[in-house]
Automatic annotation (TrEMBL):
Family: Belongs to the helicase family. PriA subfamily.
Catalytic activity reported: ATP + H2O = ADP + phosphate + H(+); Couples ATP hydrolysis with the unwinding of duplex DNA by translocating in the 3'-5' direction
Binding site for Zn(2+) 1: 435, 438, 475, 478
Organism: Mesorhizobium retamae
Subunit and partners: Component of the replication restart primosome.
Name of protein: Replication restart protein PriA
Keyword check for Ion transport: no
Required cofactor(s): Zn(2+)
Entry-linked Pfam families: DEAD (PF00270), PriA_3primeBD (PF17764), PriA_C (PF18074), Zn_ribbon_PriA (PF18319)
UniProt binding sites for Zn(2+) 2: 444, 447, 462, 465
Length: 726
């Protein structure tokens, strides 16, 4: 990589604000800055951190410029990363300053980590030997420096023992450099014996990684086929080449099990990166990634913005997962941006999934991505037998949500002392509460959504803005007491039914609002894996990646749930989610069963799941997308216009619509009320821009925004290039 030369007199600095371009600052004499340097600059009355950017500076008399205040002692953000930020800003139509903000998320890390006080053995011997003292001396035998508490802990003594030895001169104080957050991984630590299929797949990935050039490989294999083991071989190759590796995971709930798995393969954990990391740890990881001490990061989508020193491979696990899409400030899909990052940095990308996105399938079909298949589960693990339960023919008893067929399967599973999982992707007790006397429905006062009853908490809650109120006894409309009824099930209600039906079974409910934080969730998941529950009832938290060896029955309570909205992506999403959930069963040699409760057993999604004819399902999906020129055969952008009044939002949306350029290959649909017409008291309208595959969507939308009405008052406009739902 080429070295950036220092800038004298003036430098463009990108600050982490909605700035459309870098601002110019004077470089004081004797200050050394290069593109990528992290600096502190005055901005209005404040001092903020920013990055020295590329490009020519404005021709201004440097004496009129405000000077850079400080250069941090930090490795500069490299050229590839700067290009990546610019690329995302261009592509997503976001001010580059806002994108740069994602890269400056660890302010304390801009200064080097301080050295810490440690203790080192001297030549002196203690005056009197005790058991505790000899344990300390044994522990410190290697002559390496220890921290006081680290030594006490390792020797199993109290810190006062250490203090006593220090007072006698047996230890002296030394300064020791900051410890790595994780030990270096060893590519040869525990290489598994791969099956012939796996070995062939691994070889393809290894070759791609060793070549060290850009290329995307779709690793497509059923759940449990060993995709992780296989891409670990590519990770090992990258490490051998002295490269850093990023593994993206969709869900932080998954990272813990993943870290352990990585450790058993590489002898050390990767560094984690996600929003739940303690601030101090965040700073250290950021810094050590920049310095190259951390070799592998396993993280959520924001890990794409870590300042890697020598990144050489990105793996996107569960590449189809909607969690990779950020829809806040910077609207981006981390899977797609990982591909861009690989292109800019000339290194390979691996996309892994049991149910790849239609986009990736098409890319592989058309030869833009290589494809590696793993068709079978590892060892004797067999995919579950899958059946749909036609709810029209085998309806549940009144007031119940589980078909007799599912209940029977559950009781057989219990009798075999195996585990069942009931999946319902809906938190709370019931999605709607109404009054039987007057028909009043409880809605959110500030969103166009019904309030969901959470019975454990005794509340009615809005799942969009968090508004909550106590569930009253009387109807607020007609005053009738005790006439409120819960309509439809959430996981809490299913749990109630399960407990009533199987009072002796150990039942666990897993739902993000019940599980108190990531730690608690981890414990629950471990307990389930150890067999400490008979029946698990969960939302999509339980769908992903977990390995529950004794789980032999999966029941989908409402397989049709995701199909209800009119979104063209609904079938794909439902298929992916249902495949993933049913994939929780049959992780070992035991026979397993997946049952789907559905009112539409002939729906292509149900047929694909039950028959296992995944190929036919994708073919049909792809053909439909192609016919309608929907992504990836055409392009879409969503523009959401919101305001405090319906009138302002709609007027602005119409104004934007009128500003649309006249071209033949792109047209605008709407404005129409957004799928959620009101959220948090803001009224929302949507324009959908639909273009051909090679259309210049960005140019088109940019022109609309530039020529449309000025954003004023409470109006907000956000652009979502490649929206998830459309
Ligand atoms: P996937 O990522 O495709 O769902 P995993 O990599 O999680 O599959 O593999 C499923 C299970 O099989 C894991 O417990 C894994 O450790 C085990 N496994 C897969 N391949 C091998 C292998 N070659 N040797 C030993 N265990 C394996
Ligand atoms: Zn609300």
């Amino acid at each position: 990589m080429k070295e950036d030369s220092p800038l004298t007199t003036a430098a463009p600095v990108l600050v982490p604000m909605p700035a459309e371009r870098a601002y110019t600052y004077a470089v004081p004499e004797r200050m050394r800055v290069v593109p990528g340097s992290i600096v502190r600059v005055p901005l209005g009355p404040r001092l903020v951190a920013g990055v020295v950017w590329d490009g020519a500076v404005e021709q201004v008399d440097p004496r009129k410029l405000r000077p850079i205040d400080h250069v941090f002692d930090c490795p500069p953000i490299d050229h590839d990363m700067r290009r990546f930020v610019d690329w995302i800003a261009q592509y997503t139509l976001t001010p580059p300053g806002l994108v740069a903000r994602m890269l400056l998320r660890a302010p304390e890390a801009f200064d080097p980590e301080p050295w810490i006080e440690g203790l080192q053995r001297t030549a002196l011997a203690p005056g009197r030997m005790t058991g505790a003292r000899s344990r300390v001396l044994e522990t410190a035998e290697s002559g390496l420096a220890w921290t006081r508490s680290g030594l006490a802990h390792a020797a199993g003594v109290s810190s006062t023992v250490i203090d006593g030895l220090k007072a006698q001169g047996v230890f002296e104080t030394v300064m020791i450099p900051p410890r790595p957050v994780v030990a270096p991984p060893d590519p040869t630590y525990a290489r598994p014996e791969l099956t012939p299929d796996q070995a062939a797949a691994a070889e393809t990935l290894r070759a791609g990684t060793a070549a060290g050039t850009f290329g995307v490989t779709l690793l497509d294999g059923v759940t449990g086929s060993g995709k992780t083991e296989v891409y670990f071989e590519a990770v090992a190759t990258a490490l051998d080449k002295g490269k850093q590796v990023l593994i993206l995971l969709p869900e932080i709930a998954l990272t813990h099990a993943f870290l352990e798995r990585f450790q058993s393969r590489f002898g050390a954990k990767p560094a984690e990166w996600h929003s739940d990391l303690a601030p101090k740890m965040r700073e250290r990881v950021w810094r050590q990634v920049a310095e190259g001490t951390v070799r592998v990061v396993a993280g959520a989508r924001s890990a794409l913005f870590l300042p890697f020193k020598e990144l050489g491979l990105i793996v996107v696990d569960e590449e189809h997962d909607p969690a990779y899409k950020q829809e806040d400030r910077v609207f981006y899909n981390a899977r797609d941006m990982a591909v861009v990052r690989g292109h800019i940095g000339s290194f390979p990308i691996v996309l892994a999934s049991a149910t790849p996105s239609v986009e990736s399938q098409v890319n592989a079909n058309q030869g833009r991505y290589a494809r590696v298949d793993l068709p079978a589960r590892f060892a004797e693990a067999a995919l579950p037998t899958l059946r749909s339960i036609d709810m029209r023919r085998a309806p549940p008893a009144r007031g119940s949500f589980l078909s007799p067929l599912l209940v029977e399967a559950m009781s057989k599973t219990l009798a075999r002392q195996e585990q069942s999982l009931l999946f319902l992707n809906r938190r709370g007790y019931a999605p709607l509460t109404l009054c039987r006397s007057c028909g009043h429905r409880f809605g959110c006062p500030v969103c166009s959504a019904w309030l969901v009853e959470h019975r454990f908490r005794g509340q009615l809650v809005c799942h969009h803005c968090g508004h909550n109120e106590r569930r009253p006894d009387a109807c607020p409309e007609c005053g009738t007491i005790d006439h409120l009824v819960a309509c439809g099930p959430g996981v809490e209600r299913i749990a109630e039914e399960v407990v009533a039906t199987f009072p002796d079974a150990r039942t666990i409910v897993l739902s993000s609002d019940l599980v108190g934080g990531v730690r608690r969730l981890r414990l629950e998941l471990e307990a389930i894996a150890k067999g400490e529950a008979d029946i698990v009832i969960g939302t999509q938290l339980v769908a992903k990646g977990h390995n529950f060896p004794n789980m032999t029955l999966v029941g989908i309570v409402d397989a049709d749930l995701g199909l209800a909205n009119g979104d063209p992506r609904a079938a794909e999403r439902t298929f992916q989610l249902l495949s993933q959930v049913t994939g929780r069963a049959g992780r070992t040699g035991k026979k397993s069963l997946g049952l789907l409760q559905t009112y539409q057993p002939d729906h292509p999604v149900m047929r694909a799941i039950v028959s296992g004819d995944v190929g036919a399902f994708y073919e049909r999906e792809i053909a439909e997308r192609e016919r309608a020129a929907l992504p990836p055969f055409g392009r879409l952008a969503g523009i959401i216009i919101s305001a405090e009044t319906r009138h302002d939002a709609e007027a602005h949306a119409r104004g934007l619509r009128r500003a649309a350029p006249e071209v033949s290959d792109i047209f605008v649909l709407g404005p129409a009320e957004a799928p959620l017409a009101m959220v948090g008291g803001r009224h929302r309208f949507r324009l959908l821009v639909h273009g051909e595959r090679r259309s210049d969507m960005q140019g088109f939308v940019r022109q609309m925004l530039a020529e449309g009405p000025k954003v004023r008052g409470s109006v907000r406009v956000s652009v979502d290039i490649d929206p998830q739902s459309f």
